[in-house]
Amino acid sequence: MSLDERVAEEFTTCFQCPPLFGLGASARSRRSGAWSCTAAVDGGMKANQAGKEISLGTPFQVTDQRIQTNDVIAERRRHVQKVCASNKAFIRAKKARDSAEMFRYLYVACTNWKRVLLIMSGKMNTTDPAKLRPRLVHGELGNRYLRRLVSYSPDEIDFRLRNYFKVMFVRSPLERLLSAYINKFTQSYSTYFRKRYGRKIVRRYREDPSEQSLQRGHDVTFNEFIQYILDPQTTESSSFNAHWRQYYKLCRPCIVNYDYIGKYETLAEDVENILRALNSTHIKFPASVASGTRTADLVNSVYANISSEEIHGLWKTYAVDFEMFGYKYPDFSRRL
């Protein structure tokens, strides 16, 4: 199996890490719950190093020059490349061993990115992403119009990885963990995660759990979730879930040369830049991101109940992500 085929096999959803903006009319190779970490409108967005607008038979064009002249984005990309170069032996060993893994979700505005991509496909009867219901976005519409990279032929995969406009989004690792916990263990609709992971967490880390908790896994605490994340049985397992898997493993920025690396903290600005580059400024990305102040307050409050040893363990677990994407040791961790 070629490197590009391995990358395609490993990428299943990253519409937050949307690597290649690529939409197709077929989802014939879609596997259960898994989408391509390639996002893009099929056949449409090819980066043009000369900075000229081109089209490959779709209404969508990209002027790569608009992105490359952004000093902030250029510095993000340079920093990622620098970290990759300094960890080349480590990362090279990992990518060969992990070739059979499948990637699923990287939650940085996932639903809203899928909404935007569906509208860009030209198959929707609206230009307002907010009008597309989440249930349909993740279900019927997504299944029909959003295509996984692995569903293409080897030559098509190679072409897309080398030529399409590739986008990746990240956020602070510890904020991301808290977001994953809230979404997957405290919401009433997250029955799958409660049964798949919640019951296991309760069984492993809770003293004298109730029979109901063992059966439902519905009341996992954040402290128990952190114990699970730090457990060698979890971190050394190939089933380390994509919602909390390290970005450098999930989106493979040392293999895929992303044209744009966006951040949750600058989501509105980054989205505006990307849509402008794709000549899609008529699409308004839904404004659903909480303020930085509220997010910081919540993170500080929750992690105040996590021990210094566990904070340090999380730092080590996500050390490459912290370094690669420019995140510093958080304020509440200075007690170390």
UniProtKB/TrEMBL annotation:
A molecular function GO annotation: sulfotransferase activity
According to its UniProt entry, the protein's GO biological process terms are: carbohydrate biosynthetic process
State the UniProt keywords alphabetically: Carbohydrate metabolism, Glycoprotein, Golgi apparatus, Membrane, Signal-anchor, Transferase, Transmembrane, Transmembrane helix
**Membrane-topology annotation of the record:** Single-pass type II membrane protein
Q: Name one Pfam family in it.
A: Sulfotransfer_2
Q: Where does this protein reside within or beyond the cell? A: Golgi apparatus membrane
The source's domain of life comes to Eukaryota
According to its record, what are the GO cellular component terms? Answer: Golgi membrane
> Where this protein primarily resides, as one coarse class?
Golgi
EC number(s) reported in the record? 2.8.2.-
PANTHER family this protein is in? CARBOHYDRATE SULFOTRANSFERASE
Q: Which family does it belong to?
A: Belongs to the sulfotransferase 2 family.
The protein's name is: Carbohydrate sulfotransferase
Species for this entry: Ridgeia piscesae (Tubeworm)
